[in-house]
Amino acid sequence: MIPFGPPPAASANLKVCELLCPLTNTWNPEAIQLHLPQYEDHINSLITSSVSHQDRRIWLFDKSGEYTTKTGYNLASTTRLGGEDQPLEWQKSIWSIKTSPKIKDFLWRVAKKAIPVSANLETRGLPAFPCKRCGGIEDDLHTFLLCPFAQELWQFGKRFWKHSCPMWTPCWCYLTHRRW
C-alpha cells in the first residue's frame, strides 16, 4: 500500500455509512473511489451487515468501547517504541479466551494443525485424499470455511443464531475475512 498523505478536508470526518448504499446496505463503489481509492480492494472484501446500524466511534482497547485516560495511558505505556507490532502469540492467547475448555482445546488443535484433515495427515506420512463433500483440497481452512457444505452450515447458523447471539455477526465476519 502506498502512503498518500493526510485525508482531504472533505474526507476528514468520513463515516462508514457514507460508503454504503442506503437501500441495500452494500458498498457504494463510486463513494469508495471518491474518498478511499487506495483501500478499494480491502473495503470490497468486507461483507456488510444485513442489519443497518448507526455509525459510532469506539475505542478498541476497552471492553466498553469508550476512551478513558486510563486506557489511553495503559496503551501508551505498553506499546513498544518504534511502532513495531508484536506478533500475536496464538498459543498463549487461546488459553486466555473466555470460553469453555472444549472450545479452547479445539482452537489449540486448529492452531497446532492437529485436526485430522488430509493436509495435516499428509505431513504425518498418510496419503492425501480430497474433501468427501466437494472433492476440493482438504485442509483446515477448506473444512471449516471454504467447502460449499461448510458455507451452507455457516449460512444456516447465521439465520438460526442471528437474533439469539449478539456476537454472531462479528464472529462470522472474523471467520470469513481473516484467515487463520
What is the residue-mean pLDDT, rounded to a whole number? 79
- The helix-and-strand class reads mainly alpha
Helix tally?
Answer: 9
Beta-strand content bin: under 5%
Shape estimate: extended
What would you say this structure looks like, in words?
Among the domains are: 32 residues, no CATH class; 88 residues, no CATH class. Helix content is 42%, strand content 0%. The chain contains nine helices and no strands. Helix 4 packs antiparallel against helix 5 and helix 7 crosses helix 8. The longest helix is centred in the C-terminal third of the chain and has 14 residues.
Question: What is the topological layout?
Answer:
Elements: H1 29-35, H2 40-44, H3 69-78, H4 90-96, H5 101-111, H6 118-122, H7 140-146, H8 148-161, H9 168-177
Write a compact overview of the structure shown.
The protein is an all-alpha fold.
Key terms:
single chain, 180 residues, mainly alpha, 9 helices, 42% helix
